[in-house]
Give the backbone structure.
Amino acid sequence: MAESPARTRRKFRYGMVIDTRRCVGCKACVVACKAENKTPPGVAYTVVVEHALPTGPNDKPLFMTKPCFHCERPPCVDVCPVSATFKREQDGIVVIDYDRCIGCRYCITACPYGARFFDFGENYPSVAEKTAYARVPSPEYRQFRKRAADTSPVGNVRKCTLCVHLQDAGGRYDQAAGRWPACAKTCTGRAIFFGDFNDPESEVARLLSERHGVRLKEELGTEPNVHYLL
Amino acid sequence: MDPRSLKRLFWISGLVFFALGLIGWRDRFLYGHVSANYGSVVTWGLWVAAYIYFIGLSAGSFLISSLVYVFNMKRFERIGRLAVFTAVVTLLLALISIWADLGHMFRAWHVIAYANFKSPMAWMIWLYSAYVILLVTELWFLLRADLVAGGRAPGPKGMVYRLLALGSRDQSEAARARDRWIVRALATIGVPVAIMFHGGVGALFGVVAARPAWHSGMFPIIFLVSALASGGALLTVIAAIFQDGWQRNRDTVIALGRMVLGLLLLDVLFQVSEMLVAFYGGIPGHTESLRLAIGGPFWWVFWWWQLVLGTLVPIVLLVLPTGRDPRWVSLAGLLIAAGFLGVRLNIVIPGLAAEEIRGLSEAIASARMTTYYVPSATEWLVIVGVVGLGLLLFGFGELLLPKEEEAGHVRV
Ligand code: SF4
Ligand code: SF4
């Protein structure tokens, strides 16, 4: 990373608890994420998946907002031939070094959760037509890249970073100051909780101790850091 | 058709394919991946399928050449050099296909500089690099004496030979004996390398637990068997066209046909076993991709291309008395070789086209987030161009490289 925050020895374990009962399926998180990370068409760091539960006509559908799970044992990291995808030691966030990634997309095949997207180089019309919006660089990883053909991140794989660019130099987020992952900050139903699982006082740790959480595809041994409350 | 007009047909198609390919490559270089139809669900497409296809042909023909140079099998002696040459050319085609597929083509060197020991793809690349060096060296020592001899001829052809001989002049029997020894040594080292790296290509898919259709211990083995079958099939065609064609290579073509038949049946056995186990288990994630392959929008790739044209018709041709006519045998070879592209497509695409999380492809409206994939015109043209390049290289190889020596002389 060009400008990764200073490494701290303390290991945060950042992750999310998502309460599916509070999610109303408004997709505000999807939009907030787009606005924060300026992702191009076809790239979405979080999506809301909708299941019509087949139990009866009066049942609500199940909405599930789904960012990257920042797995404890991420298969995407293992398969990357050039170690462009890696799990940060200090906080467990899985990131991509855009300047190293060769765009082979092996990691996309290996992620069991569909959390990765290839950047084909497509732009929204406002960017393609070089309006003022096109000049706003994306703050991702604090690298402030402008999109242009043949330069990263075009031709790279991209994914949710837990808005890592909002951390301070010590690797901390600050909810009160607004330095908080965009999806969690914006969620209208307050369904997305973000925090450090290593801190027993954190909201996410408390929620997990009070209610029963599930993780997806436990059988694959990936140990996702996003838990769902049903 | 006599070999002469076959050869003309060969040159013309090579040139036409190559020219068509230029259109595709222009688009690839100017617009990157924008005109490719794969996305973030079906993220590998025709280019990856073509890559594993060519790689299989290369590993297969190399392993068959080792029957001559390691195991001293006389029956295939006449095609020994041709097989090594085929292995070099198809390997080159494979590397070009996968190069086109990279998001950042000019970072290909990263895979050597920053290799990750845990990634099967990285292992595959190291083994390749070893294999490339080994193949080219082996081919050079196979041809060295003839290159030296040819270098004495006047004119441009002699010059090409002198250039290719790299300054070597020794034509003594001792030098030839040394060459033979080196070829044998290289071919022997090459056998485990070729097995490992093509098994490694199978492992590249096999380790991906996120895609149940690939996640099988059978994959490395199936990849090997299908490499041998497809490589052998291609060699029967090549042996029937080159070096005076089927008239002189009659026995070799027929012997190859028999071997390919056996390998193809073994391959079918493995594939059937995969399917039976999957359907018996009936785990939806596992069967979804297989269902897609046999009953999805591209059912005809499986039923017609892979099964009827690539498997049943050639088996019939090889089993009936036509199996003793080199022309029918090489037609069967052509069908098998072409059929395996269908096999490769059916591994890559349906394996990816099953959503990892239900509802994913509907979550955002984007052509890149769909389970439906048909290669775009650009994708096809790029591969047509690669095939054209392959045909031209064969043509030049046949024109420039020394002719097959009389059997007996090549013995190692
Ligand atoms: S969810 Fe996918 S992309 Fe994210 S860490 Fe896990 S395997 Fe990697
Ligand atoms: S696409 Fe990039 S991050 Fe993903 S496996 Fe390939 S090199 Fe690694």
Remarks:
- Strands of chain A lie at 14-19, 47-51, 62-66, 85-87, 94-96, 116-118, 157-159, 192-196, 213-214, 226-229.
